[in-house]
Design a protein that fits this description.
About 40% of the residues lie in helices and about 15% in strands. By secondary structure, it is of the alpha/beta class. The chain has a five-stranded parallel sheet, with helices on both faces.
């Protein structure tokens, strides 16, 4: 699997990646408004965005084009196949693809539970730009 070059947010600190090296992010999100917000944040930072509307679709996309996906943002509460099971199936075949959990359900132990389950990071909704950028930097280096 190809490894994307180190990602840096478009904050003026570093030049943005060229079109050929832009990170490709699969956003697994069933809610249209949440997807649009994530897409806007990711486009602002020059990422290419793919979408899956449920966990099963995310699994299928990673089967078809695993070498092109640099990072997955995975909602936990999804139709057909929840985010935990989708992450397990993807990691089984593609352990090198970082998967960040994202959820509106934010209980005290949710982050620990997600990391223990195998997610590479955790974001609570509403998504804050700087937290997403930090997780992308951490996982795309």
């Amino acid at each position: 699997m190809k490894k994307a070059p180190a990602y840096k947010p478009a904050s003026g600190k570093k030049a943005r990646p060229s079109r050929a090296t832009r990170p490709i992010v699969l956003v697994t999100e069933d809610e249209e408004m949440n997807f649009m917000i994530l897409k806007a944040i990711l486009h602002k930072d020059d990422a290419q965005v793919l979408r899956a509307r449920d966990g099963l679709e995310a699994v299928e996309i990673t089967k078809r084009i695993p070498h092109k996906i640099d990072l997955i943002l995975m909602d936990l509460n999804l139709p057909i196949l929840d985010g935990y099971e989708a992450m397990r199936r993807i990691k089984k075949n593609h352990p090198g693809i970082p998967i960040i959990a994202q959820t509106a359900y934010t209980f005290d132990n949710d982050e620990r539970r997600c990391l223990a389950a195998g997610f590479n990071g955790y974001l609570s909704k509403p998504i804050k730009d700087h937290k997403l950028q930090r997780l992308m930097n951490d996982n795309l280096q």
